[in-house]
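USER: If only I could read C-alpha cells as easily as an amino acid sequence. It would mean a lot if you studied the pair and described how this chain folds. Here is the record:
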Amino acid sequence: MLKSLLIANRGEIACRIIRTARAMGLRTIAVYSDADSNALHVRQADAAVHIGPSPARESYLVGDKIIAAAKATGAEAVHPGYGFLSENADFAEAVIAAGLVWVGPKPDSIRAMGLKDAAKARMIAAGVPVTPGYLGEDQSPERLQAEAGAIGYPVLIKAVAGGGGKGMRRVESAADFADALASCKREAASSFGDDRVLLEKYILSPRHIEVQVFGDTHGNVVHLFERDCSLQRRHQKVIEEAPAPGMDGDTRAAICAAAVRAAKAVDYVGAGTIEFIADASEGLRADRIWFMEMNTRLQVEHPVTEEITGVDLVEWQLRVASGEPLPRRQEELSINGWAVEARLYAEDPAKGFLPSVGRLEHFRVGGYRIESGIVEGGAISPFYDPMIAKLVAAAPTREEAIADLQGMCATCDVWPIRTNAGFLAKLLDAPPFQAGQIDTGFIAREQDRLVAKPELSADALDAALCLLYPAEEARTLASSGFRLNAQPNLGVRLLIDDAPVEAELPQDVFPHANNAARAIPLNTGVVKFHQGYAFSVQPWAFRSQGLGTAADGALLAPMPGRVTAVDVTPGAHVAKGQRLVTLEAMKMEHALTAPFDGTIAELPVTAGGQVTEGTLLVRVEKAA
C-alpha cells in the first residue's frame, strides 16, 4: 500500500481525497495557488506546496510544477481529482516517467476516450450503441452546417476535447448554427486548447444516465450501477441521484453490461464513468439508450454511488493504484436505498446565475453528508469554479432522500454571497421531479418559475422585525403612536432587498424579541433566511443613494473576466435583448444584452481585453 499522496487539485475534492487517504494511513500533500494560500485543503493536508499565481493556467494546470512539488516532498503518488489535469494523458505520462504512481487510468485509455469522435468510433467497434451524428475531420463551418442539416435539427454541437458542459450548444435551426458554432469554438479553445467539435442528434426527451465502472491491473472490471443526472442547466449537472428512477432490471442489466464492455475496450484501470443519453419519451428502454462519452476520472457526483453501494471509491482508487485487485466482485455489489446530491453554487439565479464572489461571512448548513472545501470566513475566488459544497442525502426510499435533501437546501443560510439554495429547494419540490418524470430540458422550460424569489412570509418578517426593533425600541415606537381608545400605531417603512415595503410591528413578539431564529444583524439592518434565500431587511432611513442600474443603459462587468466577443460598433442601432458583449468569467461565457432599443453611445472595451468588476462595457442611449 502507498505511504504518501500528493493531491493535484483544490477545494472539496482535495478535502475529500485527504479524508480517505488519512484514514488509510497515508501522508497527504496539498498544492495551492496564491488565491488558495489559506484554503481548507491546505490546512487539512500534512504538507502543502505553493505552485504559483491564482490563475489555474499558471498553477493547477502546470504539470511540471505539480511533479516538482511531489518529488520535493517525497510523495509516492499523485491523485488528480477531477477537472484541471485529471484527464490529461500527457500529464499522466509525465507523472509515471518521474517515477511516481498515477492514481488514475492508463494514459492510453485517457487518450482513447478523451477525444469524443475517436471514442465513439471505438465504441461502435465494441458493440456499444452510439447516438447519430458527425465525427469527421473536416471542421469547416460550411461542412459542419451541411452535416447539421443532414442530421436534422435540433442538433448538439460538442467540443471534441470537452467535458463539464463547456464548449457545448443546442441549436434549434439552421439560422442559429453559425453563431452557436463560433461561441462553442471560442469556449472550447479557451477551456481545452482545442476548438474542434462534433455534432450529435439532439434527443427531444433526453435523460442523462451514467454508469460507474471500475477496473484493476489484474483484468477485472465491474460496474457500481447507474446514476441519473438529468437535472441540468446549460449542460451542467445540478442534482444527481442513484439509482435512476424508473429503471427496470432488464434495462439496468443492458446499460451496465454495455458500460463494462466500453471500459474493457480501452483496457480501463481505476474509476471511470460511461455516460449515456436515453430517449425517455416511452420510459427507460434498453433499445433507446446510447453511449455519449466516457469520463476517465472520479466524478463530482460519486458520493451518491458510494451511498447506495457502501463503497469508498477513493479507497478503491488508492488500492488499485497500489496494485491490489478490486475489493469486491460484481456479484458482491448491490443497490441499497437511495441517494440524492445537490450542488450548492455561489451564484444568483435571479440574475442569470451570475457567479457571486467574495467572503462567506455567514455559512450554516446541516444534514446527512456535506462535501465542501470552504468554511465560514473563507472566500469564493473569481479564478475557479464557484461551487461551495455538495449536499448529499441518503435514505431507504427515494421519497425520504428527496425530502431530506430539500430540507437541507431550504435551511442553507449564506451571506453575503448569493447561492442557488432556494432554487435547489424548488427543484427538489417540483412535482415532475418528485414523480421521476424529468429530462435534461426541465430546468430550461421551468426556469422563470424556478428562479423567482418568493416573498418573505409574514412569520419570517416578524422574526426579522424582532432583531431590527428590539423590545425597548419597539415600546418607544408604540408609545409614540398612542391614541386614546385605539391601538397604538406600529407601522414602519422598510426596505426588503432594496424594495420599499410598509409593515407593522407585531405587538405579541416584544417579549421574544431576542429569540429570532435564522437571522443575523447587519450594521444597517438584518438578514433573514427563508426557504433557502437571504432577505436583506433595513429601515427606510438606510435606503441606498447609489448610482442606479442598467436602466440608464450602462452595462457594467458583473465580475472580473475577459471580453471574448464584441458584437456591435459605436453608433450602431440595437434592439432590446440583442447581444452586445460576451464576457468569459468563472470558466463560462456570459452574454450582456441591450436593456432597451437604442444606439451604442459608448464602447470602451475590445475583444480579448481583461476587465475588473464594475468596468463599463457598453452604454446604450435610449431611442427617442
Summary: The chain has five domains: 4-103, 132-201, 337-452, 458-542, 550-622. Residues 458-542 form one domain. The radius of gyration is 26 Å.
